[in-house]
């Protein structure tokens, strides 16, 4: 794959991720991880870690716009963020201890359960 083709794939993956993040509050895991793994060929552990790194700037942009529209529920945000910080720390520490095949299956199972809960 040529360098320009790879760059175009990166930009398109970022654009799709940003759109999904802005519309649905998701994108890092749902779009980036499979995109980096299947389309770009990035190893799974690195795809998960890179997705987390990409999410921050996307989240800040979306949060700024949501803040301007006054649609953030701050008391919920603060409490969930506190739990999320602890969970993020534990998850980041555990990531390299989980074999790739189990990580992929666990991620797929999580995505399927989330999809089913959204539909039903």
Automatic annotation (TrEMBL):
<protein>
    <recommendedName>
        <fullName>Probable membrane transporter protein</fullName>
    </recommendedName>
</protein>
<keyword id="KW-1003">Cell membrane</keyword>
<keyword id="KW-0812">Transmembrane</keyword>
<dbReference type="GO" id="GO:0005886">
    <property type="term" value="C:plasma membrane"/>
</dbReference>
<feature type="transmembrane region" description="Helical">
    <location>
        <begin position="49"/>
        <end position="67"/>
    </location>
</feature>
<keyword id="KW-0472">Membrane</keyword>
<dbReference type="InterPro" id="IPR051598">
    <property type="entry name" value="TSUP/Inactive_protease-like"/>
</dbReference>
<keyword id="KW-1133">Transmembrane helix</keyword>
<comment type="similarity">
    <text>Belongs to the 4-toluene sulfonate uptake permease (TSUP) (TC 2.A.102) family.</text>
</comment>
<dbReference type="Pfam" id="PF01925">
    <property type="entry name" value="TauE"/>
</dbReference>
<dbReference type="InterPro" id="IPR002781">
    <property type="entry name" value="TM_pro_TauE-like"/>
</dbReference>
């Amino acid at each position: 794959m040529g360098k320009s083709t790879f760059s175009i794939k990166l930009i398109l993956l970022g654009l799709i991720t940003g759109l999904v993040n802005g519309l649905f509050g998701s994108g890092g895991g749902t779009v980036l991880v499979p995109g980096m793994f299947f389309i770009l060929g990035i190893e799974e552990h690195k795809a998960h870690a890179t997705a987390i790194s990409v999410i921050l700037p996307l989240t800040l942009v979306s949060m700024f716009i949501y803040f301007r529209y006054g649609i953030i529920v701050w008391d919920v945000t603060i409490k969930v963020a506190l739990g999320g910080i602890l969970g993020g720390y534990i998850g980041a520490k555990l990531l390299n201890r989980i074999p790739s095949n189990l990580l992929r299956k666990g991620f797929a199972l999580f995505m399927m359960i989330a999809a089913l809960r959204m539909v039903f």
